[in-house]
Fold this protein.
Amino acid sequence: MNRPPDPDAPACRRHAARPVPGPGQRRDDGPAGHTANRPAADRTRRHTGTKVWRVAVELLADPRVRLGAGAAGVLITAHAARVGTVGPGEARAFRAVNGLPDSLYPPLWLIMQFGALGAVPAVAGGAWLAGDRRLAARLLADGSATWALAKLVKRNVQRPRPAMLLAGAHGRGRPPAGLGYLSGHAGVATALGAATLPHLSPAGRAATLGIMSAVALSRIYVGAHLPLDIAGGIALGIAVDAAVALPTGQADSRRDDQ
């Protein structure tokens, strides 16, 4: 029978007096005990992360959720843009992108055209030729409505272009006309991308998301918009696509190879 260790005994004796774990037992008073529990904890964290991701995907597949989120984004950014000044954080973000090298202008200008009004019939025509007439109609409605609503929001918010609000803003290409908030290019690219994403493979989704992001950043790079303008355009594109999908019940079912 093991006797309890004597507190007055030397350290070496106290250590020796500790009972030795038997077969199938694990000693939990050292690093090894904590290490043995790590795999189970890692599995729990991975399982929790997977559940959160699935819930988020299911929520975003509901057009009502996207419509509410997009509309809220437009209202919040429009309220901030009405102030008529540029905050220090927004100014830093603008200068970080606007100050990139001039050598990036040719490829970014090309990508930027995916947010132009002309991209709407081009992308819709591609879907039509691919045999998806329902998607083609949705793309045509998404892009046209987003472009028209962007013009309407501009008249109501009345935020100038970056050159009128920030000293040293670097303009590239033809000077943009009209007002700054919100970005029609970012809105159109987002609306077209949101409608197309559920019909693409994982690689196609990654490429589409990359193009959407590049269109948004390119508008800051050429000096046409401030970050808040871009955020408002993205929110508008999300809201318009959701509104177009809602009456027809076009919930975004994901591909099986996701």
